[in-house]
Amino acid sequence: MLPEIPLSEIQEMAKQEDPMDFLFVFISPYITLEQQKADLSESQRSLLAFNDMFREIFNGGSIQLIMNGCGERVFLSPLAESLEKWGAYNIADIVRKGKVLYEIHKEEIEGATDISDEAFDELYEKYPEFDDLDQDYYDFMDDTEDSENIKQYILEHLDEFAEIKN
Predict the structure, then answer these.
(1) Whether the Cβ atoms of residue 89 and residue 83 lie closer than 8 Å to each other
(2) Which of 95, 115, 141, 155 has its CB surrounded by the most CB atoms within 10 Å?
(3) Are 146 and 91 in contact (CB under 8 A)?
(4) Cα–Cα distance between 75 and 97 in angstroms, integer?
(5) pLDDT digits over 93-102, tens only?
């Protein structure tokens, strides 16, 4: 199900400096559709997974992403393939690296019940490869090339992401 989004809103947000601001024009209605149990397309689900990745890693890192139950949606979904299709090759590589780590460590991390700062820090000490993964993500998001490529792909394929209202 595609949300109706006014073309004027898409055009206005496309002018924003931060490509993530533009992506939220689509992500917000997708969240509502998902809560309503609507049938979402692969592109919609991938954009939601990308949002989970963005939100969780910036808020607490990839270990937090896994602890908060987003690991499967990010690492075991077609997100990496969608990111490549959208021209976000660097982030697709990070998702693939994360998938390997997720598959190895998911049971212990998902099973962590103590979410104190101390316990959280201990997980990063135990699995420093996640810290490296997070740093790679920060480096590529700061560069914004991949985010800009996603924005351009969406602009060129609007009918894949929304029903446009004039």
Answers:
(1) yes
(2) 95
(3) yes
(4) 9
(5) 999 999 999 9
